[in-house]
């Protein structure tokens, strides 16, 4: 019974995680107009699932961290009531935030659950030092780092683009250029006759690229390049999210050996995918459209920074929040462009501040009920 209840709680947490978190990796794709909502969420679902499966091989440190080891005694960790209370407390908090359209952190919810149930169970014996060093510091620092890096990267990349003369109308071409040609004019059109030819790389506007040079043209539009890069970067973010979040939930299942790690991660991945496909749009609208308007290049920059930070954190076992990093990166762009909606950002920050205490209270209540009534 306890194992079944824990599994159900973990699946509910995974589903809630998907509803609130799945779209964040592709928020800039939708927000910048690169693609529509349906294509964005499908891309997020595929890449997040792949990240979840990859976590089987790369994210053992996160599994250990979120089992609660080091925060409380091993005897308490082995009790189903403790794991169930954490999972349900975090799940209820994240699901409530989803209904309100607020992008909060499942990681933060889990930390709140660990704090609430752990403190109720052991009181001052709870290892607050490890909680701060291992969990809270990465959660607090990560959005600030994301904001700074995103703003800095956008400034640098924009200067490079301007210096290179690249705009949305620019294309990259490889053409057959002629050293010596005869040129005639007919009805205001220039015609280049055959001469001694060699390959030449040029950067021109679409119209110039098409009409100025004759011969074989292999043109790749700069906007197309940027859109493909944006898809790749958003895929990296979603992949990193699956890589980072799945082990945290699986850690709850492993504390009582409820499920083999491989099957646990697959079950979590499926539930996360279902949550994103069925119920992610409200939070997606907030992150994509309401924090700041963005164009293709700005969205790409925010995605790139988010992916790099979350992937690095996953490999090193740091429980950063994809939500905090993603919102921080997008807000960094809005800071540079001076177009961020401060009221929306303020409401998001308030929801972040409330996540931990709300999850802690819910988890503590559930733990008390399970220990004293059930």
TrEMBL record:
Residue stretches spanning the membrane: 42-63, 75-97, 109-128, 135-157, 349-370
Keywords, alphabetical: Membrane, Phosphate transport, Transmembrane, Transmembrane helix, Transport
Coiled-coil intervals: none
Membrane disposition: Multi-pass membrane protein
InterPro entries cross-referenced by the UniProt entry: Phos_transporter (IPR001204)
Localization per record: Membrane
Record's keyword annotation contains Membrane: yes
A Gene Ontology biological process term: phosphate ion transmembrane transport
Protein name: Phosphate transporter
Provenance organism: Ignavibacterium album (strain DSM 19864 / JCM 16511 / NBRC 101810 / Mat9-16)
